[in-house]
Structure of alanine transaminase:
Amino acid sequence: MSRFSPRTDFSRTPNPLAEALARHRAHGLPLLDLTVSNPTQVGLPTPGAGLLHPPGAYHYAPEPLGLASAREAVAAQVSSQGTSVSPAHLVLSASTSESYGWLFKLLCEPGDDVLVPAPCYPLFEHLAALEGVHTRAYRLPLAHGFGLDAGEVEAALGPRTRAVLVVNPGNPTGHFLHEGELAALAEVCARHGLALLCDEVFSPYGWDLEPGRVTSVAGRELPMLTFSLSGLSKVAGLPGLKLGWVHVGGPASARDEALARLEWVADTYLSVGTPVQLALPELLAHAPRFQAALLERVRANRQRLLAARPAHAAWDVVPAHGGWSAVLRIPREPGEEATCLALLDAGVLTQPGYFYDFGRGAFLVLSLLPPPEDFAAAMPPLTRVLAAE
Ligand SMILES: Cc1ncc(COP(=O)(O)O)c(C=O)c1O
């Protein structure tokens, strides 16, 4: 038997819901999928054909941090979210996920740890483990609408903690970081010498105009090393094109050292393709059209969900301000998994809160991306199953 690294020793045992779903599909039963998160599969606009064959697509002139024209286009995109940023402070990668790997290499020794929010999309544990890095959870209290509590961050710190990850707005909670939360977090980061990694992939998807909301930390004067992450996958709904970016900010000397080191990491991989970089200005010019269509879709589906909820129901839609999901608080009995299995029997696929580490309470997570007719058709079985609990 060959020996493999424990870093790749992930569980491959399917959970009961995955097993039930496989049986459901094997029997050819109808299914309304309220977990779909792939923006290319739900009938949203895509850019015109031909953009990925720009002149010069086959010419290779490696630029570790990314082509100047592509970094300028990203700088304009990031600046439109808040403060003006310089292309010189940007690093292009193949995806946000790859950016995390590069940042963990930059900041952590194997055995160090990073703080991750809970509840949250379950991405970081695996990305960190592949770099030999551990994660420690800090709670986003339900009582604060899943907002960031700097006291929870500080309480979760360990002797080897190097960075704090924030997802703004949270996935799936849809809570945006607020100015007061950022100020308190910055104070904790500065006092403990921690870097901030701020995942802003969903920040263009605010549903309303909330006062005090932070849409991006890029370009702000903050006392700690700050990395803002995003990419084409969510900003333009193009996950298959493989282009992400990191904006590096914070005190100038630490920022410049981080950029020099990241250039070296990026030069080791040279992972971003030339055609997508050359097409980036036009792909980003298409982004507002995609974002407007997506926002219309998620707002309308959320309205359908709110309208379907009977008055005095034992379940509720958790208040939120953005993103692509809805979170339902459901009765503790019969619990998340039993509810998801009952919904699957009724032909509706949803996710249990434990996929996202909600901790206390019982929750369901629904995607707001499905085509309107699918989402509307799922409301009667959803409300029927939830009413039976
Ligand atoms: C919060 C968050 N960050 C990052 C990603 C991954 O982004 P990318 O496709 O750029 O790797 C996801 C994927 O859903 C996500 O939910």
User: Anything to note?
Assistant: The longest strand covers residues 161-167. The mean pLDDT is 96. Residues 95-97, 121, 123, 167, 171, 199, 201, 231, 233, 239, 244 surround pyridoxal-5'-phosphate (CB under 6 Å). Residues 15-37+287-387 form a domain with the Aspartate Aminotransferase, domain 1 fold (CATH 3.90.1150.10).
